[in-house]
Design brief:
alpha/beta, eight-stranded mixed β-sheet, 12 helices, 18 strands, disordered C terminus, binds pyridoxal-5'-phosphate
Length: about 375
């Protein structure tokens, strides 16, 4: 017997969200699959999107290599670019697109001895102050890349720091700074992450780079009704006991019963990626009904309140997050971000559903949407 904890991935919902992202943006979109597709399984996600996606984005070369080895033929952009000459050589052999965000990466292209011509995305820093050329250096970096004779195209890109915050003027300033820095440079443009795509029409250009929204989460914290949750993190109740008033529960005795309390024991914990910081009161569903986590989350177990659910018991289905319990709500309660929660999922097996490309049939199989 294996424990009944798993992470179900609805690939039909992923495809739906990708098409929605591209629709809203109105141009091409790279589906960002870094960090194992935010915990959803990069290869399965890539295959399910392959026939509809304009391309994929990953952070590092090894992530791109794994997709190529898995048979993915779509364009793949390496968002942090290459770290050394041998990475650049592999990028060329695997026909990868590379971000260039610092001078050393231009030197690598200048020094490369392949007859290759690279598809480069030139990253310009417009306020994030993390990676990217300073605006004043953008034209020179562009010219140096052109002069190498080893570049087939240059796409101009930048990244937003605060596009998820409504009413925050920084994004408008970043768009303006980007346009000013690139006014004289030819090439396609790419500005939008998920939040930029959803909230900043003025930032929509040739390519979007949606990540989080593909997985059904609106980075602004609201619920973009068109997005469908992709991941269902689920388990079952495997023991039930009743606490008498005054009895405490779990490590630290953080929960003390003030009345008779039926407690369901669930075989998933922070070692599976459920946040240990989730306090008593964090939303969770049992047999499809809303209830709450109680007590501190353990490594391999957590506890739920069944007092108001007399029919729930051993074997009852538990949704840690998914269609009924938004991962964003769990993140808010645990004082974490949905990005972090999704990426942290581990140990429990990923189960991919609706991998097929047939829309009607695949969607109907899930029953719920
Ligand atoms: C991760 C990443 C994205 C996707 O961001 P989301 O907020 O998940 O949509 C886009 N562009 C770059 C450069 C990234 O690193």
């Amino acid at each position: 017997m294996t424990r009944p904890t798993s992470v179900r991935i609805d690939l039909a919902a992923l495809r739906h969200n990708y098409l929605h992202a591209r629709d809203v943006h109105g141009a091409r979109a790279l589906a960002v699959l870094k960090a194992n597709a935010y915990g959803h399984g990069a290869l399965a996600s890539a295959h399910s999107l392959a026939s509809i996606a304009d391309g994929f984005g990953v952070a590092f070369l090894d992530e791109a290599c794994a997709l190529r080895e898995g048979g993915v033929r779509n364009p793949i952009l390496v968002l942090e670019g290459c770290f050394n000459a041998s990475e650049l050589k592999i990028a060329n052999e695997l026909d990868l697109w590379v971000v260039v965000h610092q001078e050393e990466q231009i030197r690598l292209i200048e020094a490369s001895r392949t007859g290759a011509r690279f598809n480069v995305w030139l990253k310009i820093d417009t306020g994030m102050s993390r990676a990217g050329f300073r605006r004043s250096d953008a034209a020179q970096a562009y010219q140096r890349l052109q002069n190498t004779g080893k570049v087939s195209s240059i796409t101009l890109m930048t990244h937003f720091a605060r596009a998820d915050e409504s009413g925050e003027p920084m994004t408008a300033q970043q768009i303006e700074a980007f346009d000013a820095a690139t006014a004289t440079l030819k090439g396609e443009r790419s500005l939008c992450n998920s939040a930029g795509l959803l909230a900043w029409p003025a930032a929509r250009r040739d390519w979007a780079r949606p990540g989080l929204m593909l997985y059904g989460v609106d980075p602004r914290g609201g619920s973009e009704s068109e997005l469908q949750p992709v991941m269902t993190f689920e388990s079952r109740v495997f023991n039930v006991r009743t606490l008498e008033p005054g009895e405490s529960l779990g490590y630290g005795a953080t929960f003390v019963a003030s009345q008779r309390t039926r407690v369901g024991l669930v075989c998933a914990g922070y070692a599976d990626g459920y946040p240990q910081t989730a306090p008593t009161g964090t939303p969770i569903a049992v047999d499809g009904q809303a209830t709450a986590l109680i007590g501190r989350v353990s490594m391999d177990m957590l506890t739920v309140d069944l007092t108001a659910l007399p029919n729930a018991g051993v074997g009852s289905a538990v949704e840690l997050w998914g269609p009924r319990v938004p991962v964003a709500a769990v993140a808010r309660s645990a004082n974490r971000s949905p990005y972090e929660l999704l990426c942290a999922v581990k140990r429990a097996p990923l189960v991919h559903e609706n991998a097929g490309q047939g829309t009607g049939e695949a969607v109907r199989l899930t029953g719920t949407r």
